[in-house]
Amino acid sequence: MPELPEVERAAKLLRSVAMNKKIIEVEAKEDTIVFSGTSHEEFAAELKGRTVKDARRYGKVFYMLLDGDGRHPVMHFGMTGMLQVKGQLATYYRETPRKASADWPPRFVKFILHLKGDTDEEVTQVAFLDARRLGRVRLCKSPLTEPPISALGFDPILGMPDLDDFKKSVRKRACPIKALLLDQSFSAGVGNWVADEILYHARVHPEERCNVLTDEQLEALHKQTSDVCRFAVSVNADDSKFPEHWLFKHRWGKGKKEKHTLKLPDGKPATIKWITVGGRTSAYVAELQKLQRGATAGPTQDATEGEEADESDLTPLSGDDDEKVEKGTRKLKRKVRPLTR
User: Fold this and answer.
1) Between 80 and 259, where is the model more confident?
2) Beta-bridge partner residues of 187
C-alpha cells in the first residue's frame, strides 16, 4: 500500500502538472465503491471549470484545493491506487513492472482530469487508477476538518508532537508498538514498511508493549518516526536512493532463495526475521531488535525459511475497512462502462 512518502510524491506530481491550470474537462467512470459519498457524475460536475490552486497531503490522504466556493477532491490510494500523466508511465508503489504501459486511457481508470493553463498550447491529462478498487475519492468542503482527515492522528512531517507528548501518548497504550504505529488515528501516514523501518533504526522489537518502553526507546522512536519519513520524502519515495543499510533494501526476500546482504554494525550478516503483529507481517533484525519486557515472542522465521510468517502470540488488530470492502467485492462482477463526460 502506498504510504506517506509515496502519497507525498503523488501530491508533488499534481503540483507540478496541475497548479494554476483550469480543469476544462473531467472524464469519470462509474464506480459506487471508489467514489464515496458522491457519484462519478457529481464529481465530474463539481470539478469542471475550476482552477487548481494547490495539491496537498495529510497522512495517506491527498487532496487538491480548487478556486471557487465548491468542494475539493480528496483521495486515498488504498492498496493499488496510483496517478498517471498522459505520455508517461504510472507512478507505481515500488518498482515499475515490465508490463507497465503508457497506453491511454489506462486500465483501471476512475477519472481523468483535462488541464490547461493560460499559456499552454496542449492539454495535460492526469488519471487516477485503482485496480483493486480499495481507493477512495471524495468531495469535501474543508478537507482538513472533515473525515477522513479529521479522524487521523499526527502527521510525522506536518505535525510531529514534541517528545513529552509523544511519550505520554505511547505509554498510555498496552498494545504492541508496531500495532500502534500502524494505527492511523495515532500516526497518520505510517504504513507497514515505514513502521518496520522506524522500529529497526530505533532498535525496538515490533512486539514490545507500548506501556513498558523505556525513555531511551521512546526517544529513538520519536526521532526515527520523523527522520525516516523525511528522508523518504526528500528522495521523492525513490527506493533506489534509500541507504543500503536501510531494512527496506533487504526485507523483500522472505521465502526466496537469494540471501539478503544486510550487515550488522560489526560487519557480520544480519538475521532478518518475520512475524505477524497487528495483522501485518513485520520484518525485523533479530540481533538488534530484542524483545525485552513486553511479551514472550511468538515463533519467527529467518530469511530463508518458509513462505509465510508465523502468527504472533499477541492478539492481532482487526482488519481495516478497506480490507473488508475488498473481501466483499471479490465476487462482484460489473460490466465495463465507458467514461462519461
Assistant:
1) 80
2) 154
Q: Is the pLDDT of residue 205 over 80?
A: yes
Is residue 60 part of the annotated active site? The answer reads: yes
Assess contact for 199 and 288: CB atoms under 8 A: no
Query: Which residues are CB-neighbours of 69 under 8 A, at least 6 positions away?
Result: none
- Told to judge if 3 belongs to the known catalytic residues of this protein, a careful annotator would answer yes
249 is catalytic: no
> What's the rounded Cα separation, in Å, for the pair 202 and 197?
8
pLDDT average, residue stretch 53-58: 98
Cβ neighbour number for residue 324 with a 10 Å cutoff: 11
The answer, yes or no, to whether the previous bond of 5 is cis (omega within 30 of 0) is: no
For residues 270 and 285, the answer to whether their CB atoms sit within 8 Å is: yes
Say which residues have a Cβ less than 8 Å from residue 255's Cβ, sequence separation at least 6.
Answer: 306, 307, 308
Question: Which of 21, 22, 29, 60 is labelled catalytic?
Answer: 60
3 state SS of 27: strand
Among residues 2, 73, 148, 176, the one annotated as catalytic is 2
CA 147 distance to own-chain centroid = 17
Instruction: Look at residue 192 and tell me whether its pLDDT is greater than 70.
Output: yes
- Of 3, 46, 197, 208, the catalytic one is 3
**pLDDT tier, 317 (very low <50, low <70, confident <90, very high otherwise):** very low
Q: Indicate whether 210 pLDDT > 60.
A: yes
To the nearest whole number, what is the mean pLDDT of the chain? 87
